[in-house]
Batch of 4 targets.
Target 1
Amino acid sequence: MSSTDSITIAIASDHAGVEMKAALRALLEGQGRTVLDLGTDGAASVDYPDFADAVAAALADGRATLGVLICGTGIGISIAANRHRHVRAALCHSSTDARLSRQHNNANVLVLGARTTGIEVAKDCVAAFFATDFEGGRHAARVAKFS
Ligand code: RB5
């Protein structure tokens, strides 16, 4: 049980991440979570910053509390997401990354690379990210300095 259990999760990817997005959306919805899917929906080539911006907007206007972003490596979409001051996007390659990104950095967007991270590891990252709360304490002042 974590404070994320009843929130809405925004999810988006570029064309490289469509299959992983579908699998992770199904995983989250299977857990009874509410997912706001902001695309993309097919194999047609798209620009990953547009999808980072879409999740950032959903967090800003309250449609979602946390997000998941996916591109080929996760790098481009995390750079784009972190241009938004309210976004703390963490590119994760392990469940340890995902857990610590929540505990220490209060990450509000989990970023995954569909071409660099296998689906089972990605599922483990999702499980860890949404099961973990920010620890606060000594980390709070550091995170506050982000913005
Ligand atoms: C798309 O080909 C690819 O460049 C993109 O998914 C991502 O890996 C960029 O960082």
Target 2
Amino acid sequence: MKKSTILYTVIPCYNESECLSKTTELLSQKIHDLISKKQISEKSRIVYIDDGSKDNTWSIIQKLGKNHPQIIGIKLSRNFGHQNALLAGLMYAKDHCDAAISMDADLQDDINAIDKFIEKFNNSAEIVYGVRSERKKDSSFKKHSALLFYKIMNKLGANTVYNHADYRLMSKRALEELSKFQEVNLFLRGIVPTIGLKTATVKYSRAERFAGESKYPLKKMINFAVDGITSFSIKPIRLIFLLGIIVSFISFIILCYAVIVKLIGQAVSGWTFTICSIWLLGGVQMIALGIIGEYIGKIYSEVKHRPRYTIEEISSSQ
Ligand code: UDP
Ligand code: MG
């Protein structure tokens, strides 16, 4: 048993002022329990990353820090998005902890699963995935769109862990490996499985958001899905190529047909057919260009290699 595991819980927060007090209360209770059971070290911490919130999230984090010395606050200079905020926290934790658990600020991830995460870590797992056993509390739209997303992702060749979001434990070693991934288009749940190492899963049931609204409206969800697919798979471009071949083949048949009709001397006016072909092919070409553009956009941002986050301030009572 690794008795002195220093556990860091990493929580990105964007406009989470309504959730933070409750989350801190439950989580610090949990951390204290684990410390008193000697499962984790007294040096364990809770890291809140304020991802450029527009409400008073940062002042709440600072205030909570005064009453709970185990809280560390990291303020990003602006909103960098969930994945980047999470990375900022994990990269901070990497230098201080033996293992880090990432979770949402809204108490959707069951805090009681932390015991099982540590158990698996003690059984030498380097990465432990939290997998949702049920999604009763999610809206039917969210549930179905998320499941469809996992299916499409895996079909397209990007291996993600089914029904796993970003509730996971990573050992210091796994975090060090993660730090070697320099990509700017971050999709952590696709990147982490490519690290390899010994993994385990923990099942938990996903609760309702404790307070406030989801910070992932439909537009962000679609962006996230497109990002996930185009960051991990070139299959869409291959499909375009295949589509091109099929369309060319059909065009060839039509061409033969047109020549034969012409030779027989029965040339039809064919207006409807011409118009349909133009619109159909125009649409297909635009979709194809869009998909290629998506990849070029990715290359563009990777080439610039801008910083993935900027830390403005770190507050810690230590
Ligand atoms: N989040 C963030 N930056 C953003 C959007 C979200 O740090 O730009 C955080 C948010 O505060 C929460 C986590 O990411 O802790 C997941 O967001 P949310 O719970 O709203 O997503 P959902 O569970 O609805 O998919
Ligand atoms: Mg949530």
Target 3
Amino acid sequence: MTYIHDTLEGLRHSSPAQSEFYQAAEEVLECLRPLLESDPQYHDHSIIERIVEPERQIMFRVCWTDDAGRVRVNKGYRIQFNSALGPYKGGLRFHASVNASIIKFLGFEQIFKNALTGLPIGGGKGGSNFDPKGKSDAEIMRFCQAYMSELYRHIGPTTDVPAGDIGVGAREIGYLYGQYKRLTGRYEGVLTGKRLNWGGSLGRKEATGYGAVYFAQNMLADRGEDLRGKTCLVSGAGNVAIYTIEKLYQLGALPVTCSDSRGTLHDPQGIDLETLKRLKEVERGPLTHYLTYRPDARYLSREDDPGEGHAVWRIPADVAFPCATQNELTVADAEALISNGVTCLSEGANMPTTAKAVDCFLDARIAYGPGKAANAGGVATSQLEMAQNSSMQQWTLEKVDNKLQAIMADIYRSCADTAAEFGAPHNLVLGANIAGFRKVADAMIEQGVC
Ligand code: GLU
């Protein structure tokens, strides 16, 4: 199977310095080995070489004026990776760390994630190295308007439909949407994650977190277990983490942590959800303020992190939900989780576990749900928002949530069945990659060379 190796080597030369993208591509391609060995059509149609190459990458300058009147400049990105299954679909990330490699890895993951949902959506991603931290509301608005002034010509409800990701929530989607409408004169479903009173879907905000918990539920059910009474670790304090915590409480579990870029919050009584929501959704302040309301909790700052990992993963628990960002969970963290008795891990974030740490979980045979399967509930519900927009309807929360639960159960089933088909029933990484790839690759073959 030298062409897997050759393709990866080729990427390192043609797209230098994109380590996150190589990591994502290597994981997918390595998992495809047994499929490529048993079915030569993918090789005959050069699918591997084609699927790692984005259909289109857009990079642009974003100029905006800060509150002091100074002109600021950021990089803007939109990667339209694969449209074999539908319009490009995927979020926008506004974070200081964003670069071409990060957007490319996210776009690549999105292809397979979206395919796993079974819905007609292709893969895309975008964002900017704009850092929303400490920016005023007026600055956020001006940045969003400037970003959309460039992006609007490349997107549309049947071509490319962006949404949120880190640093982009309903507020930013609102400013982006307003600018799109102003420039095009069209009121249409070009973005998802909109507020409920102007085209958003009930349940979208909650969907990624709820979906990650539903995925864990499915993994545990196959092992004859459930979440009731289980102590859970959650990292992150954004939208995904908050609604993971909410769903865990609804199912009788006890989430005891969350975290931000400065450290980990541990509340052994269980994270107080209302306080967390107020801090993050209303006040938009740091997590340390939580201690004013709950003095019995403790905040472990980054300086307290163990040498090779993060304090959040050293707290004894049964189930873990990494919901912060890529590569937040190292080998040392994985070893600590396993020796503390964690039996299930469901990824709310995209690629939060390093490649070697994934191997630790697979070797230990814990129930491990990779992000492209476990966090697909967000984008799946975005597609439900698109369906509501194009039919000018608004569905009930019950209808959306029932669909979400069914989609997460289907994703789990198709990952588990595919893993079993290839002789590795415990390996949902293999199952997710092969199941997602097959859907996209078959469509690419049927649509000819394009
Ligand atoms: N950013 C989310 C993801 O990583 C959601 C994308 C969307 O809703 O389009 O899947």
Target 4
Amino acid sequence: MPGQKYANNELVMGRWPGSSLYYEVEVVSFDDTTERYTVKYKDGTELELKESDIKYITSFRSKKRRSGSSSPSRRRSRSRSRSPGRSSKNTQRRSNSQGSEVKDIKKDDILEIKLTPLLRENSVGRHNGDHDIIQKNDGFLTFTQQNFEQEFEENETLVQYSLRPRKEESKMQVMDSKEEKQIEKVPVKTMELELEFGGKIGAFFMIFLLPAAVFYLLWICEQKDASILILPLALPAFESLWDIRVFGVFLLWFFAQALFYLLPIGKVVDGVPLSNGKNLKYRINGFYAFVLTATSVGVSLYYKMGLHYVYDNFLQFAVSATVFSVLLSIYLYIRSHKVSHEELSHCGNSGNFIYDFFMGRELNPRIGTFDLKYFCELRPGLIGWVIINLVMLLAEMKVQNRDMPSLSMILVNSFQLLYVVDALWNEEAILTTMDIVHDGFGFMLAFGDLVWVPFVYSLQAFYLVNHPTEISWFAASAVIALNICGYAIFRGANSQKNAFRRNPNDPKFAHFKTIPTATGKSLLITGWWGLVRHPNYLGDIIMALAWSLPCGFNHILPYFYVIYFTCLLIHREARDERQCKKKYGLAWQKYCQRVRFRIFPYIY
Ligand code: NDP
């Protein structure tokens, strides 16, 4: 296996993702599992590059000399160019891989590219924040940021360009292998991947603790006294938890959803461009799958094919789903060793079996066009959750001998149905989430999607079956208002960001203030995203509280969801923050200065 070719701290030329242009970058570290380099551009942006996207500076210099194409006019146009990776100084210190030879190299000799500015009238109008100045510079539109000037004297200009290579630029990419060989390779110690979730030990415990937590919660929920402090004295026999027929029903459910996913209905859209330059296609038909499922359930109710079977065997269903998610994770782990490095997720490739099994090695495992992660994220688990809620509603009527479900049960069912239908209706938005873009598909997501979501998120409905709770219409109105408020923030924030990412020049964003970043994307600093850094999490947590309140205050169990979910989103926010810091460098720091609170205004 090839090792690290470019040394840490070495200045090299790195290809700007998605283009054929090379900028001067500094090697920060090398991950020998994914064989990717973390490189730093001049404006502080850090990106991961493959070895093939990095070249020695010397090869560019030598190539240019040989090409003999540096006419004075060309030189003039070059000297004006700005790039995210380019400093304004004429000279730059370079150290070779041994760190002994340090030379001054003229910048103009390095970059043989012409940068064509991207003039965005709408952007001009809204980059009018306190620290942002817009200036025209020799016909080139630049966004100058005073704070950046103070912090990084070399990088006073942050520019958004449409990058177009010169004719000879393509020639430059043909590397002179002889020159490369002359530069001695030195073995360099590789940087450890930053491990999440408590690292290897954390992952090891989570693999056992998460299923144990599900069974403990479900078991407690069935008891008359649903106190979580009660330790189970008489656990059900292990054999009684496994029923092959239940497993068969689970498989039927899973494959029926897979069939709905494969139906050629619904539009096909592009996912976020991957680091390998590929763009995966996704079929958007989750809402149709939901309608088909609802119709099938309606028909089975009409013909009195008792859904009560699910309630009677609820723990067995949870066991079946867990077994299936473990088998799926094993399959995912094995197949991930057969795919190329380009297909791997960065975060699930530490080289440690337990950690990688938990985090997931492959980013977008597919069988043909069937995307396993995308399918599991929204279909079997999420739709399963509302079906389980319906099962609990019917079970409540049966167990409590009611003609009508309780108001609490109706509220819980309606709120969560709205949440699921919303997710399916806006299915396309999932393509930009961390789960799809960043995380590998392993035990964490497989178990989360197939077991945790349907069986733990339905705890409130399950609780109400054996713990009758009556609430007044007044209390119900207050809870409905709370849920509407949470939903408005959640939907408003998510829609605003998705619409902005899709088309930042949309006239509806004309009055929004934004911070440009070196990647070409901007960050909203007004609207919902100017209130806190994760307004969508705030709305989600408010809704989670509204789902628990109808269960009264006798036990903490129905509040498990909101407590756990708050912890999850605080942790998720920190993960996203780390990634955005890497992605956007100083622009992210500036965003954090402008928008001080993460999730809860004036609190956190
Ligand atoms: P988010 O939708 O919060 O997206 C975070 C990304 O948004 C960042 O990485 C960045 O990506 C972009 N971004 C951040 N700040 C700005 C800004 N100011 N302007 C423009 N873009 C910005 O990610 P999640 O995947 O965590 O959440 C998606 C939804 O799913 C949320 O509503 C969340 O509550 C919900 N969720 C629900 C769960 C559940 O179990 N019910 C679990 C987890 C999440 P970039 O710049 O690359 O676009």
